[in-house]
Amino acid sequence: MSLRSIQNNQTVVFKRNLSFLWKFLALDDGKQKMERKLYNWDESPYESIRTRSALIKAKALCPITSKSINYICPYSGIPTHHSKEAWEQDTEYHKLKKYEQLKKVNLYEHDLRSGRKFTEFAFPGKQDKNFTINLGNWDSFFYTRDFPPMNDEFNLAAATKVLTYPLTIASLFYKFSPYEIEPKGPITLEGAKSLAALRYSLYPPYVKSSESSITFKDRPMRIFIIGASIESMIPGYVWKQFGYLFPNTNFEIHFIGPEAYFDKESKTFQSTNTPFGKPLIIRFDEQITLHHHTKFFNEIYDMGDLFPFDPYLDSFFLFHPGFKTADQIHWNKSLKGLLESKCPIYMTGYHEDDINKEIEWLKNHELSNEMDVIMNKTDNLFGCTKLELVDSNPTETYNINNKIFGFRGKRYHAIKT
């Protein structure tokens, strides 16, 4: 071994040891935790929270009296019931201690607006080849990727709210994915075939893994996010964390839907107004480009601009699609094209009831016989840990990307006659 390689190895070990020491010293012993003040939303120092409180009172109904909400829960600081009497009569609310979840929502929302230093967003750069990334859960990912220490649930909530989208995708594609094939895990036989095709492109078996390797791929791998909204607001440097997991592959992230582009100046979702319905393309770096299509998928599919689809290079993600919402007519039209692509399709839900409703819609659809299940419903290991509030029913909470399920257009095998 050369002197240079020995020095390089020593440098790597030193950096890793220093990183570990930093994390160890930064661990919170519980005594130094900052006591966070619990505000009533009506009296919050932040106008956006006071406005949200007013909207809840204007639109939500009391779960006991079905009247307007006027009473703020003294335990959580959030408006929840019509009156104190109704609040006291809500036995389920008190028995399940829902106010504890709502209190977390309150603290999370004020933390995000507190102006504190968000050290959790000091994202790491390129992964050292001497260390393997572990995608078993959030903790193992943050540690093996050398993120700053997540000292408390507030650090974790803020970081996972943006990273849940790229990491949900990465945890499926990664060669050491935490999701196993059934019966031990949720991946079906058909799902294993789809993932094998994608991994064949990500990890070509006949090419040595190196920075200079050239694979057979003649175009980038495409990830289509259908019905995009919040996902389209995530900046490129967050998606780059996905890219660091697959350094030898170029990616196109396609955001598709009427809210697929967020204009930073007007702070609203807008149409890209590009000629001939072409997407607005933002090139983050040599590896990752972001494509914003502000039309429904069925409209883009009919234009034919995305053809051909390739199960080895393309995949679809539907984050909380809401099949039964006002956009149902577009989902009806889009489903045919999604299934015809024969590419894997993964969708997420806020909780058990939500994902069950989405699956039920698929099962009752006229094209249900054309689907193969590729991933049974399961907990998403990279769901967001931050609790969110249902404004129309403020005693209920949810987590973004809490559940995940996968399907694909059915493939028919050739039969000799």
Automatic annotation (TrEMBL):
Any Pfam family: MSS51_C
Cellular component GO terms held in the UniProt record: mitochondrion
GO biological process assignments: mitochondrial respiratory chain complex IV assembly
Boundaries of every Mitochondrial splicing suppressor 51 zinc-finger domain copy: 61-112
InterPro entries: Mss51-like_C (IPR046824), Mss51_Znf (IPR032717)
Residue ranges annotated for the Mitochondrial splicing suppressor 51-like C-terminal domain, each copy included: 211-386
Organism superkingdom: Eukaryota
PANTHER family given in the database record: GH20023P (PTHR28069), PROTEIN MSS51, MITOCHONDRIAL (PTHR28069:SF1)
Protein name listed in UniProt: Vps72/YL1 C-terminal domain-containing protein
Top-level taxonomy: Eukaryota, Fungi, Dikarya, Ascomycota, Saccharomycotina
